[in-house]
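As a representative case, the lines below give one protein's residues and fold tokens.
***
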Amino acid sequence: MAKFAQKVVLITGASAGIGEGIALHFASLGAQLSLTGRNKEELSRVAKQCQENGLTDEQILIQEGDLTSAEFRSKLLKNTVDKFKRLDVLVNNAGTMHYAKTTETTEDMYDTMMDTNTKCHFFLSRDAIPYLKESKGNIVNISSICGPKPMAEVAVYCMSKAALDMFTQCLSLELAPFGVRVNAVNPGTVVSKIARREHSAYQEDEKYQRFLEMQKSKHPIGRVGLPVDIAKSVAFLASEDASFITGQILFVDGGRHCVSSAVATNVK
């Protein structure tokens, strides 16, 4: 329980899915949490669950806002450090996806994915560096199997995650002399809200379950991932157990990265 006692962990996209799983796991490890997302009601729900996992109300800060806003990012960091007096771990998890062929991709779709999946993580990390140098903390970026693996109908999403992977490795070189580590976790398909939210074919329960069944065959281990699978990997990389690991792109995907890329198939 005390593994992250007195440590402060800032998690973006913490109101659902993988971000929620990461928040709950760090709560069980005793970390103080700064949680952000777009939905205040959902953030409050996650915060309540974190208290059920052992934290007090005073050990949790929630901030609703848009990470693509420089003003909000500045406020997010300031409020976190003002409350907890330090920052030890930054988990860049917020992300979005649009399913669209290149010929159907609009500039708004492109900008939304690149801003949310790449740009905001770059600048939030940049602004967090002074605090992480002070604590000799670390950054964990939540990327995707789509970073190194080309997939049809999600070209911009793949591009945004490939950029995040490269940023992870470049920043790890910059910050290593200061004792700050930077790593990425690249999940395969994980049970979460992103596919249901962004793809009209998956919004019905039955069709989403068929999607998950189809995805099982794409993962050699024979199942899709759960948020806790990703959360435990993030906690490992953020812990002292991983003190000699930086610049790592860690696939947490049931072996999917070992399988040849396949053309995306929608559930009908």
The chain is about 45% helix and 15% strand. The first strand starts at residue 8 and ends at 11. Residues 107-135 form the longest helix (29 residues).
